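debug: dumping io for the single-chain case to check the tokenizer round-trip. Nothing else runs in this session.
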Amino acid sequence: MHNLKTLLCLSGFIIFSILTLSSFTSADDAVVMSKLLDALSPTPSNWSNTKHYCDWKNVTCDSTLRITSINLAYQSLSGTFPSNLGTLTQLTYLFLQRNFFAGPIPSFANLTSLQVLRLDTNNFTSIPKGFFQGLTSLQFLTLSRNYQLAPWTIPIELS
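debug: decoded output
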């Protein structure tokens, strides 16, 4: 009987932990998207704090309301990205090419789900140290035509 109680308590704790963890992570995505919305000019079409970010145009979420894809390509947008963009841990595709984004590229280190990252043809100025660390699923990256980008060398993580 004692083992059954222990097992039930442990099972309840595990279920509670999983539910709590998933609510924290989708809440984190909401914070990131709110900061991103505030940072962009003009506001992307159909993006608003009055709608859930999973309903925004060109944003895709999974069944747990985690962001898996953002496509802001070719929208003549400007702004500087919030540093916490790298906390979108389920992000698989990020298309930011052919805009006027400026400032440092935020760190995407340890985004193990990220497969495609299009940053070309913007005005980014620097790449953070450790930028490529932990990008174990990355298959496609473009950084070309960022003419303000400070010189950098291809890091060992990519070799």
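debug: round-trip ok. The beta strands are 59-61, 67-71, 78-80, 93-95, 100-104, 116-118, 123-126, 140-142.
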